[in-house]
Amino acid sequence: MRILIAPDKFKGSLSATEAAAAIRRGFKQVWPGAEFHEAPMADGGEGTAEAIRSVRGGEWIDTTASDPLGRPVSAHYLWLAENSTAVIDMSAASGLWRLTKEERDPPGASTFGTGELILDAIRRGAKHMVVGLGGSATNDGGMGMAAALGYRFLTSDGEPIEPVPANLLALTAIKPPEPLHLPEFVAACDVTNPLLGEKGATRVFGAQKGADAKAMSLMEAGLENLADVASQTFGCDFRNEPGAGAAGGLGFGLLTFCHAKIRSGFDVVAGCLGLEAEVAAADLVVTGEGSLDAQTLGGKGPAGIAQLARKHGRRVIAFAGVIPDAAQLHGVFDAAFPLSEEPLSIEESMRNASNLLEQSALRAARLIESGKTL
Q1: For 91, which of 40, 135, 167, 287 could close a Cys bridge (C-beta 3.0–4.6 Å)?
Q2: What pLDDT is stored for residue 91 in this prediction?
Q3: What is the C-alpha to C-alpha distance for residues 337 and 322, in angstroms, rounded to an integer?
Q4: What is the pLDDT of residues 13-49, one digit of tens each?
Q5: pLDDT band for position 327 (50/70/90)?
Q6: What is the Cβ-side half-sphere exposure of residue 239, based on CA atoms within 13 angstroms?
Q7: What is the residue-wise DSSP string for 349-371?
């Protein structure tokens, strides 16, 4: 039996690689002679560069960049020398994980560090740039990223403003750098949110980054002003583009300032991994992530894996730390298994995730072997 194990990360507890290894350990206790193929997945969020590196190889480039609050930190991106491609997780510099809960400050947080990583890759000779959008601590519409590339953001008096959301209402002009030679950009994301509105960057994701109602109102107005000034400056308006609201509007920033194309993060990673061929060759396809919920079905990696499995008539099962509503997964996966059959706190589940996932895989394999599922 050929088994493809292609999970996403279990956020906060297991990387996709660690999750795949735990599932394999559980399965091997029932199917010691099976042929296992591991393809740790990502969908444009955290771990995208690692997922691509797991199959394509490449070199980690270590450099110094600014964290969301402007402090210097060590960060890295993936360099694929054979086609001069840089793969950058925006979360490497600008991620929420960089801040303690007490430090979260969306009006004062910037993607400047992501821009520094991009600039480093450009100076290295990048011809292609893949930027994974996810896990951000920011809500600046990509202004910080653009500032690192040399764009100037000015008030009505021609004074430069610090590129953070709190200052966006003072913006009246944008001056692009001269000259600016950019590589081909792909923005990889797992959401389709526009920049503004009830489904936009601020209203949907602002609270989890630490913004209260007052801050969200300020940031929403600031992003609207950024979109207005950018439209007047460049003659194009991407505020309603699906994915423009990803990573606090960094999707909008990459479209506007870097002429990027937004693509499904799952499609980008799946293409790099040759995932469809792996699915077609498998007898059983296995995926999973921390929570299987409505967001999963809206473009996350496990749903993409399931869609490929259905296309090729393959059985597909999933594992998750949390399955809030199993009924909504009907028709997506042949079966879905939680980490534990007993109620556990989130803290306990995260602390023992590797062992719990291994044991869940063992139980699932026994059920499949006995014919009680699938």
Answers
A1: 135
A2: 96
A3: 9
A4: 999 999 999 999 999 999 999 999 999 988 887 889 9
A5: low
A6: 18
A7: HHHTHHHHHHHHHHHHHHHHHHT
Q: Tens digit of pLDDT for each residue in 179-210?
A: 888 999 999 998 899 999 999 999 999 999 99
How far apart CA 75 and CA 111 sit, in angstroms, is 13
Q: Where are the domains of the chain?
A: 2-41+274-370, 48-266
Q: How far apart are CA 123 and CA 289, in angstroms?
A: 36
In the structure encoding, which two tokens stand for residue 15, read together?
Answer: 């990387």
List the CATH code of the domain at 48-266. 3.90.1510.10
For the record, the structure tokens of 27 come out as 């399965």
Q: Report the distance separating Cα 48 and Cα 42, nearest Å.
A: 5
Backbone angles phi, psi at 15, to 5 degrees: -75, 165
Name the nearest CA neighbour of 276 among 4, 90, 67, 2.
Answer: 4
Classify the C-alpha dihedral 202-203-205-207 as positive or negative: positive
Region 299-304: what's the mean pLDDT?
83
SS3 letters for 165-215?
HHHHHHCCEEECCCCCCCCEEEEEECCCCCCCCCCCHHHHHCHHHCCCHHH
> Stretch 87-115: mean pLDDT, rounded?
97
Cα end-to-end distance, the chain, whole Å: 15
Q: Specify the CATH class of 2-41+274-370 in words.
A: alpha beta
State pTM to two decimals. Answer: 0.89
Q: How confident is the model at residue 316 (pLDDT cuts 50, 70, 90)?
A: very high
* Whole-number Å distance between alpha carbons of 151 and 215: 25
